[in-house]
Amino acid sequence: MFRPISELVVREINRAGLSGEVKALAVISEYKKVVREMIKDEAVENLVPKFFKEGTLHIEAKSAGWSQNLHMKQYQIIDKINTALNGDIVQKFIIKIAG
């Protein structure tokens, strides 16, 4: 019996213990898309996602101004990410200023 390739891929990802890494990649990819849409293109270069762990997306801001800009819109961005990924995956951001 044939099975959908998507089902097989998910099964193998889980078997290999990579589901967390795949989820993190999806979160970071969606974050970049939403930030580009809500703030502007150059925001992606100045608000760099570093890693995603246990519901928290860690972001490095290139300046205090970029940090403040993201902080003001973080809940809207989180909501859009979670909507796009069909779940309550991202709980919060931790934003650190580079330097």
Give the strand content: 15-25%
Instruction: Sketch the topology as an H/E string, one letter per element.
Output: HHHEEHE
Task: Give unreliable regions as ranges.
Answer: none
- Overall spatial form: elongated
Architecture, CATH level 2? 2-Layer Sandwich
Termini separation comes to 56 Å
Main sheet makeup: 3 strands, mixed
Q: Could you describe the 3D structure shown?
A:
This protein is α+β, with helices and mostly antiparallel strands. It has a single domain, classed as GMP Synthetase, Chain A, domain 3. The chain has four helices and three strands; from the N terminus they run H-H-H-E-E-H-E. The chain has helices at residues 5-15, 19-38, 43-46, 64-84, and strands at residues 47-53, 56-61, 92-97. Strands 1-2-3 form a three-stranded mixed β-sheet. Helix 2 crosses helix 4.
Give a nutshell description of this structure.
It contains 4 helices and 3 strands; from the N terminus they run H-H-H-E-E-H-E. By secondary structure, the protein is α+β, with helices and mostly antiparallel strands.
Which features does this protein show?
4 helices; alpha+beta
Any chance you could write out the topology, listing elements then pairs?
Layout (H helix, E strand, L loop, with lengths): L4 H11 L3 H20 L4 H4 E7 L2 E6 L2 H21 L7 E6 L2
Parallel strand pairs: 2-3
Antiparallel strand pairs: 1-2
Helix pairs in contact: 2-4
